[in-house]
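Notes for week 9. Today we move from apo structures to complexes. The key idea is that a small molecule is not decoration. When we ask for a structure prediction with 2-phosphoglycolic acid present, the ligand SMILES becomes part of the input, just like the chain. The input block below holds both the sequence and the ligand string. Read it once before you look at the output, and try to guess where the molecule might sit.
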Amino acid sequence: MTHFSFDIVGFDLDGTLLDTSGDLTAAVNHALALANRPALSVEQVKPMIGGGARHMLKQGLTATGGYDEAMLDRLHAALLAYYEAHICVLTRPYPGVIEALDALAARGVTIGIVTNKIERFARTVLDELGLTDRFACILGGDTMAEGKPSPMPIHEMVRQCAVVADAKRAGAQGAAPRAAFVGDSIFDIQAGQAAGLPTIACSFGFLMQPVDELGAEAVIDGFDALIPALDDLARRTAA
Ligand SMILES: O=C(O)COP(=O)(O)O
Ligand SMILES: [Mg+2]
């Protein structure tokens, strides 16, 4: 008999649930072109994603000749305007995401999102893909006073998901709901661990360094591995 013992699973968005690299690369290249910089490839941009759009643009400008703050402010605004207008052209869920979210829902697991994307943009992409209603909460980089790697938005995600999880587990009062966090960047793993959650790293995401160096409690190579990894992690981290 297997009891699925995480009540709450939090997910990062970019590079974890969704491959947003094509649309983010187009937005960076739009900003770089305004500064007469050469375009970057999707593979060059991927490791620049995960710390929010401004972080990504800084990296793009550094890779193509440097920047000053005034230039960064101007191009950041242009990047966001372009991205908002072209936010879901190439963006798709990774293979197996829908099936994995269905399986979690069937098990009564409450799921939330903590991304460093602007919350409004995260909601727009998820709306366009018809996924918004699956999540008990969607927290962006601008939702709380601090974004990942701060544990602040992870704590808030757990707090909001727990309200839903507790309502589902009406008979199981007393024990706090158990939560895990799934992400692709060092910011995700640091934020999750700082909030006291076991973490799972996605090897297919926008890695800033080799996945084994992230220090996550588990690694998955695809969404077909998510449920077994969560089951295993729940067993290993049971009190
Ligand atoms: O860098 C971003 O814009 C968002 O990245 P995240 O969804 O991986 O947190
Ligand atoms: Mg990410």
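The mean pLDDT is 95.
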